[in-house]
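Researcher: We plan to redesign the surface later, but first we want a full-length starting point. Tokens attached.
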């Protein structure tokens, strides 16, 4: 990471945060609470795990702040299937890895801007996919295929629709 910082900013310990140009709400939060804080957990859990697209009318937040990882990748709903003793150590390790990746992201000062879905949580998706594949109940093929194809369609068409929508917004 230090090498990457050096390549981008010609300094080893500069990560680009000083070049960040946040809106006023995010800038005030950063000033008061810093880059990472437990204070951001409720907001980020809402955006990255619970928010359904189209709720802008009810939560009064811009649509470009992202939405639930489960809506973006419906195949991930299959992690809630039956799990028993098979590969329990591996499953435990995968849940721990998912937590280690996700908790810092959920404590980050913002969910991102101009994004489709929950892009910051994508580092944990491979672990979640492995958890789905390790399900004890012989994962039903039809739901896996249907939700997998739906996930691909959402992630192919969704960004194009979002870009078209943003194009007509005035900032």
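Model: Full-length starting sequence:
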């Amino acid at each position: 990471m230090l090498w990457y910082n050096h390549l981008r900013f010609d300094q080893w310990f500069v990560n680009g945060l000083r070049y960040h140009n946040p809106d006023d709400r995010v800038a005030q939060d950063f000033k008061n609470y810093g880059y990472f804080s437990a204070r951001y957990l409720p907001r980020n859990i809402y955006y990255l795990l619970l928010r359904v697209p189209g709720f802008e009318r009810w939560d009064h937040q811009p649509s470009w702040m992202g939405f639930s990882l489960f809506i973006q990748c419906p195949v991930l709903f299959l992690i809630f299937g039956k799990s028993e003793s098979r590969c329990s150590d591996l499953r435990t390790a995968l849940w721990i890895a998912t937590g280690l990746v996700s908790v810092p992201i959920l404590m980050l000062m913002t969910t991102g801007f101009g994004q489709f879905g929950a892009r910051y949580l994508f580092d944990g998706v491979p672990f979640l996919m492995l958890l789905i594949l390790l399900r004890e109940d012989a994962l039903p093929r039809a739901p896996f295929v249907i939700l997998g194809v739906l996930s691909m369609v959402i992630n192919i068409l969704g960004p194009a629709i979002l870009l078209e929508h943003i194009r007509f917004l005035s900032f």
